[in-house]
Amino acid sequence: MNDKFSLGEFLKKYSNDDKCLEEIKDLRWPKGITCPECGKKTKFYKVTGRKAYACEFGGHQVFPLAGTIFEKTTTPLNLWFYAMFLMIKTRCGVSAKQLERELGVTYKTAWRIAKQIRILMADTDSLPLNGDVEVDETFIGGKGKNRKRW
Ligand SMILES: [Zn+2]
Q1: What is the per-residue pLDDT across 100-133, written as a single tens digit (0 to 9) for each?
Q2: DSSP H or E segment with residue 62
């Protein structure tokens, strides 16, 4: 996701929670997932009704959100992504009050989302100076970098 990304492209790419979860999974395991249980690098299938993927052989489950800012959230992922989209577009020029209105969440939730995204954006050296703002593993706060925030 960068600041050239249009709202239309955004809505198409991240139209629902599953697509956002898929994106986070791909960011965390860009080369595919090696199952910690059977040791095979294999396809993992989305587990219905859970934010998890299961190994096609033993059914071992992985949780893409573990250790990220999304881990304990009850706010739909596509709203988080939309908040990121707005903040990237405006270089963090969106207030919690605006997010509350745009996302249809409580002020408290909007405030927390804005705060988390700001922390991550401030952590990324390339922000907000250049135009190519990637939502990469650093951005979502990957486990490997010990960036758990809540
Ligand atoms: Zn397995």
Answers
A1: 999 999 999 999 999 988 888 776 643 333 333 4
A2: strand 61-62
Beta bridge partners of 53: 46, 62
d(CA 1, CA 87): 11
70-87: per-residue pLDDT in tens? 988 999 999 999 999 999
User: What percent helix, strand, coil does the chain show, rounded to 5?
Assistant: 45, 10, 50
CA of 148 to the centre of ligand 1 (A): 26
Q: Decide if 60 contacts 53 (C-beta within 8 A).
A: no
- List Cβ neighbours of 86 (8 Å cut-off, separation of 6 or more): 94, 98, 99, 102
Please give the model's pTM, rounded to 2 decimal places.
Answer: 0.77
Question: 120 CA distance to ligand 1 centroid (A)?
Answer: 32
